[in-house]
């Protein structure tokens, strides 16, 4: 705002206007006192101000200051000493360009406006502050992983929002999403990550009770189902197969993802469809434990996710994996998807996530190359 006011000041020549206004205010007194014309009164005030502001006042300087403006710009004059017709326009153009260049230099950069420092979120409601900080979660990277400070600030705001509204769905699923990010996409130490997993599982249990109450919109319910399922999946990735089977983690992931798809297939740009595709493609089918596993569904789910968002690198990766695992005769098509993901640019708003997906695609290409040798 300050920069904009400075720009307006310069562009509209406010300060010269103030000078002339003050000069006009006091010139009548000079006119009456010295019995001179109004124009001469203005001129005498101008000279007085210039003499006051000049610390190196000499007779030579005074002669220069007492000259009219056109005589002090000799390069813009013809032989007659009178100003050329374009002189005033050139002067105004020069002033405008100078003012505009100062405006551009003093306005904050686009990058500075996009980044909202944490200190500016203090006055925001916790949920709004959490959303503002979530955008900045990958502002600082260590390799392909985000520094933990940003996501820890996000988690703190969403926890406050959940305490303020214990039965609201949005703070719950956004907190689950932030906890997942802190485990998979930051360089926090293992103890801190395990604490986030434990917190997410406790929150998933609590979310189940909220979901059973039937409260909330389909959009928020779908996201709470999805991120609760991801919480179970995060735990499954850190425990043994026996625990996964005994606690039914895979089944919970499957059931929550299916509920999310029924309510809103677009959740996380096809995230629930991607999860279901991988579950059907990779898990063994065990009666009374994972009897729902169906290999024939994996490719169709991947195709649905890709149709929903063809540009999402995760959808391309899951499609490639489904083709390689279930349709070996379409390896060339799968390679094209993998190469597109590995060579594509990471999206700024999903930087750490996309870097991880690109790395998975590159690793799968390396494996294919080794297998074909």
Brief digest:
The protein is an all-alpha fold.
Notable characteristics:
single chain, Serine Threonine Protein Phosphatase 5, Tetratricopeptide repeat, globular, 373 residues, 70% helix, 2 domains, two-stranded antiparallel sheet
Written account of the structure:
The chain is mainly alpha-helical and 373 residues long. Helix content is 70%, strand content 1%. The protein contains 18 helices and two strands. The chain has helices at residues 2-11, 14-34, 38-53, 59-66, 87-106, 110-114, 126-134, 148-164, 169-184, 190-212, 218-236, 241-247, 249-263, 271-282, 295-308, 313-326, 331-343, 351-372, and strands at residues 141-142, 145-146. A two-stranded antiparallel ribbon has the order 1-2. The chain is globular, with a radius of gyration of 34 Å.
In spatial order, strands of the major sheet run 1-2
User: What is the CATH class designation of the largest domain?
Assistant: Mainly Alpha
Strand percentage lies at under 5%
Number of helices: 18
Determine the CATH topology of the largest domain: Serine Threonine Protein Phosphatase 5, Tetratricopeptide repeat
Q: How helical, in percent, are the residues?
A: 55-70%
Distance between the termini: 63 Å
